[in-house]
Amino acid sequence: MYRYDQIDKDILADRSAEFRGQVARRLAGELSEDQFKPLRLRNGLYLQLHAYMLRVAIPYGSLNPTQLRKLAWIGRTYDKGYGHFTTRTNLQFHWIKLADAPEILDALASVDMHAIQTSGNCIRNVTADPYAGATAEEIDDPRVWAEAIRQWSTIHPEFNWLPRKFKIAVSAAAKDRTAAKTHDIGLNLKRARDGVLGFEVMVGGGLGRLPHIAPTVRPFLPAQRLFSYLEAILRVYNRHGRRDNIHKARIKILVAALGAEEFARQVEAEWEKIGTSADLPDTELARIRGAFAPTAFETLPAVSEAFEAAKARSPAFARFARNNLKPHKVAGYAIVEISLKAIGQTPGDATAEQMEVVADLAERFGQDDIRVTHEQNLVLPHVKLDDAPAVWAALAEAGLATANMNLVSDIIACPGLDYCALANARSISVAQNIAAKFADAERAERVGELKIKISGCINACGHHHVGHIGILGVDKKGEEFYQLTLGGSAAEDAGVGQALGPALPYERVAEAVDTLVDVYLRERQGAERFLDTFRRTGVAPFKEAVYADVH
Amino acid sequence: MKALTANRLIDGEVVFWRNGQWVEQFGDAQLFNDDDPAGEAAEAHGKNQPTVVVEPYLIDLTQSQGLWAPVSYRERIRALGPTNLNHGKQADGGAAIEALQHAHGAARSTGRVDLIKRK
Lengths: 551, 119
Ligand code: SF4
What we know:
By secondary structure, chain A is an alpha+beta fold.
């Protein structure tokens, strides 16, 4: 893991001291709310429905046990014993007091963490493949690039006041686990035929009011030219982005307006002017790469007797192994996914105790490494198969062993109207109602991969547009209604879902999802996933079933 | 009927106006008749307390089972706390809380009288 150097530490200490002064001036009345609000937002502090919310950056979703324990401690000391992991792989505390915020920033800084650039029109936390360094599928370790982007974009003077917020993802394999095509820039690591490392560069993805899937503007960019190219993209955006209209200010609108080809042409022209001076020196790249040097893995047999015996003994463990363990690049190891979607719980929430359990497990069995996924789950990327039964048992005791990864109850849900000041409708309880319908693990497994994503308003923090089933909370004459979309995807086959029909009232949503699943089970052929069946049949059979009793 | 609400500056707590004070429970809030200028006067007063509260605004109320409740679902959630965990004001319990929890008949989403969406 990358260790902050003195420059990083000084920046955090300075920022924390600066914010402490700003809070004091606000409380003393020397700053008005209008003056203070942009300053607190720059430090990730929002005023929500019930309290302040602090959004803590988890750079490229990577944490060590010390950091996770500190987050648990903050949750217990300053919140109500919880933290909420988000689709941006950040952590939000929902019950923060303004007066405590400076203390919390100091506590974060003590473990090299912060809330800088988690809000505002700047380059936000980079998303990276959560299996980094652990999957055999990866072309290169995306953390190396994500960390370099973090350093480059942190308080970058030229890109600190963009027309709108800006999100970058680094996907490292053919299988996209970062939702790259929904980011302002999606970088997909590639290797050219001659072995040269590079990126496919996709620009102009984004959800929200006007969803766009990012087109490829450059099929192959040599990796050592990344930063000059990023700079060129940001410059074109900074120059032509629509600062006059907040709804049209994201880069997706610019790319769509110019067309991907013309946008690419302008970027290339700018890139030419910049030259190589903005690129990262090889020595610096090597320094960063050194921080992610592979940990020493043991030489183990590919088959673990202890693991096989535990599976044979315990159907529950076997189910967990089937759904939550993923192949590791090293024989005898596995990637362990930890679901934060226990039936009846809030998607993405973890209690302080649960965070501590995960931190302990990472320390004892997982090479001190923890990842956060954009699907609001956690990952222990390096666990020996021999240790998997013990890890499972400890997770189960903490309520963290739900074996539902990628299944129907592994639902993304934003905080929605339960917490968020911008919401139209609740997301969490809709997710809970749906999950309850699929509490029978066997049935959920029979249904197979099904990604449900719920947002409480059009801002789409819950990625509803790209859910296999997307659910958007809307406001109809003051009541909570939900617009369903089908057939979206956030993966390498990304696409925006298609509306099912008129919005449904709160009480009917879970039942409608149940109906959609029944239609799928009836229609599916062979090993089709829900998404495949939908793509083959179109919306008609689904629509007919859900609205049958409405007519 | 209307009530005046805001978030308290120092901790973000949802508060309601009662005779010149800010109180934490909706059940203790002062109620204003729709045509009573005292409501707007209280709002103006609240706006003059920038070191005490953030952005006070009037909300519409509706009668439910003989008690007053905010019209909008959003304002009910502010008055009670989130519905997923018992972490808000609902944790205090009591008759006024229960009445709010059982209130029904929403009419307008924001329930804000000035109808300006909060950011
Ligand atoms: S999608 Fe809307 S309701 Fe949900 S967290 Fe984002 S802004 Fe809030």
